[in-house]
Specification:
There is one protein chain. The chain is mostly helical. It folds into two domains: 89 residues, no CATH class; 210 residues, MetI-like fold. The chain has 13 helices and no strands.
């Protein structure tokens, strides 16, 4: 198992390096530091002195890759690439263009994101599995058809509609929960109830259809037909045979999502005023704070690759033959 994990990590490292290089090229070669300065200063006719001052304050006045003006010690380290990209590999995110410590912001904002994403993830998977089992139990019936039509309808509705509708009815009209905002501690619960419910409801359509397909695939296999031929009841077949075996692909498909949970949701955090990493990223994009955007792109890549590795490991736990591939 250890050799398998090391091999997967070795595969992931070149991908992460490629993402880092591509991000650097997009931010510093396609969009040069001079262009960043003009965008931040907000003046098309800004003076060269103001541009150079802005670059010097943020470390953008150095060469991109090689500093030929320095001695051999600073030839590669006293460059924009080393300061803004290479340091990301040790999770040194530096400061934002406004002077804030990005690492401290991430450590602070990841907890509100987790407070929303984790219950939404757990409750959503549970609800989708239960609904999918009910649909499979009454497969090829009017209930199955109606459920699939409803899932398609739910899947076709924009997430913004759920958010605005939930805020209008539950917060503004019925005053059951706050319309937006966030407090720490136990007070956070009343601010999280509505975002979690909306997140779960928005995922029912796609999740139920996916899990129904997986369960139906198991229901048509030989071992299930053998169980029915032996006189096992349909309920027992569903819960003793179809459900345990259907959970295997579900497990491996959801593991990839787990590391990225604390990245948050852009829409939900922004609409509900939750100070998580999702709203943090969106605010940085709107403010064109390139340092934060770069850091969040890199962090998202690391988490996605980590999720893929965890998915591979989960495959080996349910099917040891995968270790040989």
């Amino acid at each position: 198992m250890l050799a398998y994990i090391i091999r997967r990590l070795a595969y992931a490292l070149p991908i992460l390096i490629g993402v880092n290089l591509l991000t650097f090229a997009l931010f510093f070669m396609v969009n040069t530091p001079d262009q960043m300065a003009r965008v931040q200063l907000g003046d098309k006719h800004v003076s060269e002195e103001a541009i150079e001052q802005w670059k010097a304050q943020r470390g953008y006045d150095k060469p991109l890759f090689i500093n030929t003006a320095e001695n051999s010690e600073g030839l590669l380290t006293d460059t924009i690439f080393f300061d803004k990209s290479a340091r990301l590999f040790v999770f040194d995110f530096g400061k934002s263009d406004e002077g804030r410590v990005i690492g401290a912001d991430i450590s602070e904002r990841m907890w509100p994101s987790l407070a929303v994403a984790l219950p939404t993830f757990i409750i959503g998977i549970s609800v989708n599995i239960v609904f999918a089992l009910f649909v499979v139990m009454f497969r090829a019936s009017m209930f199955d058809t109606a459920a699939m039509v409803l899932c398609v309808v739910l899947l076709s509705i924009s997430g913004v509609f759920y958010i605005l509708g939930g805020q209008y009815f539950f917060a503004k009209l019925w005053h059951l929960v706050p319309i937006s905002g966030y407090l720490g501690g136990t007070d956070a619960i009343r601010f999280l109830i509505l975002p979690v419910i909306i997140g779960v409801v928005a995922g029912i359509g796609g999740g139920t259809r996916l899990y129904r397909t997986l369960f139906l695939e198991e229901a048509n296999k030989d071992y299930v037909r053998t169980a029915r031929a032996k006189g096992v009841s349909e309920t027992a077949v569903l819960f003793r045979h179809i459900l345990p075996n259907g959970l295997i692909p579900i497990l491996t498909s959801v593991v990839v999502v787990i590391p990225s949970l604390f990245m948050g949701s852009l829409l939900i955090e922004s609409f509900f005023g939750i100070p998580g990493l999702g709203s943090y990223t969106l605010d940085a994009i709107q403010a064109q704070d390139f340092a934060i955007v770069r850091s969040m792109v890199f962090l998202g890549s690391v988490l996605y690759i980590l999720g893929l590795i965890l998915t591979d490991i989960s495959y080996t736990l349910v099917d040891p033959r995968v270790r040989l591939s």
